[in-house]
Specification:
The protein is of the alpha/beta class and about 325 residues long. The protein has a domain at about 5-185 and about 220-250 and about 290-310: Rossmann fold (3-Layer(aba) Sandwich). It is built from twelve helices and 13 strands. The strands form four sheets. A seven-stranded parallel beta sheet has the order 3-2-1-4-5-6-11, sandwiched between helices. The chain has a two-stranded parallel sheet with strand order 7-10. The protein has a two-stranded parallel ribbon with strand order 8-13. The radius of gyration is 19 Å and the shape is globular. The chain starts with a strand and ends with a helix. The chain binds uridine-5'-diphosphate. Uridine-5'-diphosphate (UDP) binds near residues 85, 194, 198 and 219.
Length: about 325
């Protein structure tokens, strides 16, 4: 469906700006709402002269602004959130307020103007994995409230519940996507604290790659181009309404393996060191041991399957980091 006008909240962020690129390329118009707390102007600056693109610096917590923007678009991709475990651990209060109140503001305004909303959630909501691969209907098992990490999962679960309640009780078209460790160009080494951005930056600075714990924990890293395709498919598929979808790559790898591949990409010229979790996150931290998506639902309903192999995606990401080295790594 070409020629729609989308509001993309968080559109200056890593996934958001990659989504904006593809939406514009597909012939849509885009309004980005971003407060630039994590997002970067440099991620969207190349669109500023495009008449199909508009950037509004502002927050999803600003209700009149959200309502005004909502009235002028056809549908909303809601990505604005405090993302990344490190951010949330550092400031759980802000994480919860932005993630929950921001989403409610979007849904309320969408209801007023009858606009479809795609809410972005996270594989973090699975918490301590029970069955791997993780299916959307699997139970969520979270740790105690004394561990701040889990507040992120709780805030995203509440976002999902809100999206579903607006769908069931108010007949608002909503859909939820759960991202699995997206990576690729524009990953922010300071922002989201992603391990891939961290390792590449460390390698480029000649520092050792810091593997937390024993490195046996796993993740399923998903190239951002795949994340964007899955997201757009969820928005465009009417049968997807009222459902959550795992958007991820099925290939699971350990953090030790990842460190080894990054080291190989730098011709072995970097060290790998293991550091305790406490040193990275302070006391009271609990890691997720395994994470790998079951994507049966996304395949059946959205026709989605990740296509970019990790080797290829890592190569493209490292290349991008090398090209942007001066902006990313302070001298
Ligand atoms: N990690 C690591 N070294 C780093 C940063 C992260 O070993 O410098 C680990 C982290 O402890 C976790 C995994 O990599 O086990 C993924 O962390 P990330 O913050 O990228 O994402 P999330 O935990 O949200 O999946």
């Amino acid at each position: 469906m070409a020629g729609q006008h989308f509001l993309v909240t968080g559109g200056a962020g890593f996934v958001g700006s990659n989504l904006v690129d593809t939406l514009l390329k597909s012939g849509h118009r885009v309004t980005v709402l971003d407060d630039l707390s994590v997002g970067k102007m440099r991620n969207i600056a190349h669109h500023l002269a495009n008449p199909s693109f508009r950037f509004i610096k502002g927050s999803v917590l600003d209700v009149p602004l959200v309502e005004r923007l909502m009235s002028g678009v056809d549908a909303v991709y809601h990505l604005a959130a405090v993302v990344g475990v490190k951010y949330v651990v550092d400031d759980p209060l802000r994480g919860m307020l932005v993630n929950v109140n921001g989403t409610e503001n979007i849904l309320k305004a969408a209801l007023k103007y009858q606009r479809k909303v795609l809410v972005t959630s996270s594989s973090e909501v699975f918490g301590r994995p029970v069955n791997v691969p993780l299916s959307e209907n699997d139970a969520t098992v979270l740790g105690p409230t004394s561990v701040p990490r889990w507040s992120y999962a709780v805030s995203k679960l509440l976002d999902e519940h809100l999206a579903f309640a607006y769908n069931k009780q108010q007949q608002l078209p909503t859909v939820v996507v759960r991202y699995f460790n997206a990576y690729g160009p524009r990953l922010d080494p300071l922002g989201y604290g992603s391990v891939i951005a961290k390792f590449i930056t460390q390698a480029l600075s000649g520092k050792p790659l810091t593997v937390h714990g024993d490195g046996s924990q796993t993740r399923s890293f998903t190239f951002v181009g795949d994340t964007v395709r899955g997201t757009m498919a969820a928005m465009d598929t009417p049968e997807a309404e009222g459902l959550a979808f795992n958007i991820g790559n099925r290939r699971e790898c350990t953090i030790n393996q990842l460190a080894g591949w990054v080291r190989d990409a730098f011709d072995g010229a970097v060290e790998i060191e293991h550091i305790p979790y406490e040193q990275a996150y302070g006391k009271n931290f609990e890691d997720t041991k395994r994470r790998c998506p079951d994507i049966s639902r996304a395949r059946e309903v959205l026709g989605f399957e990740a296509q970019v192999p990790l080797e290829d995606g890592l190569r493209r990401t490292i290349l991008w980091f090398k090209e942007h080295r001066d902006e990313l790594i302070p001298a």
